Amino acid sequence: MNVRECLNRALAHLPMVNCQDLSILAGVISDLENIASNGLLPESLRKQASRICKLGENIILNESAFESGMKKFNQSITMLEKTLYELEQTSQIVQGNNEISNDSGLSSNDLNELRVKFASQQKPLLDDFEAYILDFEKNAPSAPDAIKRILHTWKGEFGVLDFPKMSCLVHNIEDAIENGTINADGLLKLKDHLADSFHKMASGLPVIPASTRLFYNTDTTDSVDYKSSEPGTKTGYQQVQPSQTVQLPENDLSLVHDFIQESRDHIHSAETLMLDLESDPTNTEFINSIFRSFHTIKGVSGFLGIGEVTELAHSLENVIDQARKNILIIKPAHIDLFLHSMDCLKEIISNIEAGCETNSFTIPASYSSIMEKLSVPEIIELQYDITTSGPHKKLGTLLYEKGEIDNVQLSEALRKQDSGDLRKIGKILIEDNGVPVRSVAKAIAVQTQSRITRNVEETIRVPVSRLDQLIDAIGEAMISQSMVTADPAVKFSDSQTLLTKISQTNLIMRQIQELSMSLRMVSVKATFQKMARLVRDLSKKHTKEIEFITEGEDTEIDKSVVENIGDPLIHMIRNSVDHGIEMATDREAAHKSRIAKIHLRAYHKAGNVFIEIQDDGRGIDKDAIFEKAVSKGLCKPDEKLTENEIYQFIFLPGFSTAKVITDVSGRGVGMDVVKRNIESLRGSVEISSEKGKGTTFTIRLPLTLAIIDGMVVKVDAETCIIPTLSIIETISTSHKHIETVLDKGNMIKVRGNLIPLLHLSGLFNNNHSKLNDKAKVTLIIEDMLGRKAGLLVDEIIGQQQVVIKNLGNGLGEVPGISGGAIMSDGSVSLIIDVSNIVRTAFGN
Amino acid sequence: MREESTAIIEKTIGERLAGKYLTFRLADEEYGLEILKVQEIIRMQAVTRVPRTPDYVRGVINLRGKVIPVVELRKKFSFMPCEDTEKTCIIVVQISSSDLSVVMGIIIDEVREVLDIASENIEETPSFGASINTDFILGMGKMNGDVKILLDIDKVLSIKEINDIQSIAK
To answer: Which of A3, A58, A351, A589 is 20 to 30 A distant from A83 in Cα terms?
Structure first.
């Protein structure tokens, strides 16, 4: 927290200190303590602050008379303020980069900036939201809570960013989830609407919130009175009372405005902390911060004479205070109550803002029921004791839900614990009730897992260009480092210490490089989730029952690749759903299960990333494709084509065997796009299909920026690198092994099999068949299709990890060469594109 | 009237091209490169040959961790090739075509100096007849009695051309 803010708050609270209520003074002191302990501040200021703290403590401890003590205390704070002011003038204090709260609240410019920032960061949350909706549809128990949690965050954000209507919309949806008047379709619609709104917000366009009605279930729309579902009318509460209007005490308007802004900030921060608290209910730091926020609101509202706010804040404070003193254990139900209370508080504050002119404001209808609940927090605790469905389930609850123990056993064990048994609940259950150790262990595993997943990693957003610069720079550092290591002066140095130091640096450099490589890698999860949504929508549309299974969502690919596989995947999945999967009745007739399956997998293999789309539909009709190809004049009717060659036709633009063009597919454009997109990523698509059983599309993608293991070979004067993964074996070769076959060039006989042979130097001279005496080693290489070829080189120098670099935009793609690598001596070696070479060997 | 308009064009060409040029020697001629196109000048170093590229592409080099292509300007201009000497250098230039900017090296015989050529010393490229394309020449700079050919490097090393040739090679 900013020094200025601390001090201002302390100053604001000072007038409220009286000898009956010393807690306000304690708040002031804690603010001062903040200043005193802030290591960034000059020593003099901190000393001054801690002196004042001492003074205040003396007052509280009754060591100095209240009247005179307060006078001195006031004077000292004024002095402190003066010192701070001077320091600010000479700008010795770095003003905290607290963009959100300054004394006068938010200027419209700041607000806009915040909005844009907020909106542009919502994508991951939206993705999560969508995933939860899909879970929700499958009736996953944790989904409604997760959805509500996200909605609540948004509601809060919308409130802070001054989008009251959006906030209201989200609020109504929250209610609708509680009442079950909204289904997954409605929520998905909402998600789309929100995505659209965020997009507009990010580009600074006005946002038009949709009517809540749009999202409700069509059959239940009538039961929800839309007009009355403004935030105040909490349908979840039984005691709905008419809103009442209260007279606002006469105050300085600017003070009220300050109060409104400040309270909003406090509520916002408390709300965020609430969510954290939910996952970690015993964290005293969270509890204390929340307490402080409410305390401040209470203090200021008391000062301004807004009794209702003071009361509400006071009640909240009371409950939290109990938690602070460990009398009350925070349960998700409490968090819900707090969040509801804060909604109420926020509404009162908005009403106050609206009512400034008329000096009156309305109290929301939920007010009294919330106050009632806050007065007896223990009741909620009892209600929720066993059936808590929060993300943080107790061990006993878990076991109970699994059916390992019954209600009696659990309550008995709990009673034992209450009566002073210090053993853990799991232990009690095992020792006294004979619950199997294994099931307890399993439950503990589940419990810890849910804890781990709640630990969201903190992230920071960095422009991609800056990241690339960093990665480039690290790559350059790597190369100069290895040049230092390879330098003769170092290599043949006698100094042992120098060598130790250099090897140490090498080690660190390698670590840095590995880290830098992982920076650009992102998981395919978000893309896969998008596909899940697509399948869901399409299956509804076609009334086909489809189970969509994703595997290997955590597979990481370079960011740019992930961005570019979205479109091809959409086309392929559409194809699978539209053409591949049969109607349920047809499936039954074919003795298959009614529910079709589509698998989407991602995995790493052989230095590539593979993405597979597998359906169990009707498969590709080879004959139909062949007929179509013949009718289009693409091949002759009597031509003998392999399966794979036939499948390749479907990638041709305008090629479609569909007799009817639907709005989903059938124009013959999709697969053409797929092929082109994937080839631009230097990947390939393969199809395997069995009629009646299903089809599998396999996309192979390279790991860009990847390091590959390479075999360094020498040909004439050149050094080349061949990816080790595609080398099957190396054979020392002499002329007698090589056979020349008419029209097929050279072949090499390996254990009785003839394999086409190329001379690598031919790549440079454009004459692969010319052999010279220097060539002594044959590398047997294999491409993606499993075709083998021999590659004749002069000698093998060694094996080495190299970083693939492209040959500069100026050269574009060079056939036969997949890139360059910088060697330890600083020279460039070319990396051989094995699949291209093999293709050359096979003459196509 | 007609004379006046020609004068205006001449003036604009001179003004447009006036500025600093890096001059270098190639065979017996001196050429100028707009200084803003030049990234740096490096000594001749080992160049890795790249197969299946146009013959004027000598290969690639490592420029502090980046691999960049190097073009032999002599071959590009269809001059007689000659052995590299002590003075042979690589000028690293930035070429921009419609949407992408590319860093390339050009091998030249000798770097001379940086010249500030005033607008009155710059003349339009003389016409060699319709069949000869002089698009890659910006203009002629006169300096101390010499004529320096000011090159439009973007046109000399067009990315499209290199890519076209490669696709033929495929």
So the answer is: A58
Tokens of A257: 């405005």
Of the residues B39, B47, B50, the best mutation for testing chain A's interface (the one with the most A CB atoms within 10 Å of its CB) is: B50
pLDDT digits (tens, 9 = 90+) for A497-545: 998 998 899 899 888 887 887 787 888 888 887 888 788 778 877 788 8
User: 3-state SS of A251-311?
Assistant: CCHHHHHHHHHHHHHHHHHHHHHHHHHHHCCCCHHHHHHHHHHHHHHHHHHHHHCCHHHHH
- CATH class name, domain A707-841: mainly beta
Which helix H or strand E contains A586, and what residues bound it?
A: helix A584-589
CA-based angle A359:A360:A366, to the nearest 5? 155
Q: Return the CATH number at B115.
A: 2.40.50.180
Lowest mean pLDDT among A174-183, A397-406, B1-10: B1-10
Indicate the pairing of strand A788-793 with strand A753-759: parallel
Cβ contacts of B51 on chain A, cutoff 8 Å? 763-764, 766, 814, 816-817, 830
The CATH superfamily holding the domain A523-702 is Histidine kinase-like ATPase, C-terminal domain (3.30.565.10)
Q: Are strands B101-108 and B66-72 parallel, antiparallel or unpaired?
A: parallel
CA distance A53 to A31: 9
Per-residue pLDDT tens digits for A456-469: 566 777 787 888 78
Range in A367-381, A403-417, A678-692, B59-73 with the lowest mean pLDDT: A367-381
Chain B CB contacts of A718 below 8 Å: 48-49
- Stated as kind and residue range, the H or E segment containing A509 is helix A496-519
pLDDT digits over A140-154, tens only? 777 777 787 788 778
Q: Do A827 and B65 touch (CB under 8 A)?
A: no
Separation between Cα atoms, residue A532 and residue A418, nearest integer Å:
47
Number of Cβ pairs < 8 A linking chain A and chain B: 94
ipTM over 0.90 threshold: no
Matching CATH number, A245-383, of 1.20.120.160, 3.30.420.10, 3.30.70.2190, 1.20.140.10: 1.20.120.160
What is the span of the domain harbouring residue B130?
Answer: 2-169
Query: Using a CB-CB distance cutoff of 8 angstroms, which residues of chain B are in contact with residue A474?
Result: none
Between B168 and A843, the higher pLDDT residue: A843
Chain B residues within an 8 Å CB radius of A812:
159, 162-163, 166
Q: Which is nearest to A45 in space by CA: A34, A59, A60, A61?
A: A34
H/E stretch holding A754? strand A753-759
Q: What is the pLDDT of residue B6?
A: 53
Q: Does A829 lie at the interface with B, CB-CB under 8 angstroms?
A: yes
Using H for helix, E for strand and C for coil, what is the string for chain B?
Answer: CHHHHHHHHHHHHHHHHCEEEEEEEECCEEEEEEHHHEEEEEECCCCECCCCCCCCEEEEEEECCEEEEEEEHHHHCCCCCCCCCCCCEEEEEEEECCCCEEEEEEEECEEEEEEEECHHHEECCCCCCCCCCCCCEEEEEEECCEEEEEECHHHHCCHHHHHHHHHHHC
Half-sphere exposure of A603 (CA within 13 A, CB side): 10
What is the per-residue pLDDT across A413-447, written as a single tens digit (0 to 9) for each?
Answer: 777 777 766 666 666 777 776 676 767 766 666 66
pLDDT, tens only, B17-28: 888 999 999 988
Number of domains composing chain B:
1
Exposure of A342 by Cβ count < 10 A (0-12 exposed, 13-18 middle, 19+ buried)? Answer: buried
Whether the pLDDT of residue B167 is over 60: the answer is: no
Q: Where are the beta strands (DSSP E) in A493-644?
A: 521-523, 546-551, 556-558, 596-605, 608-615
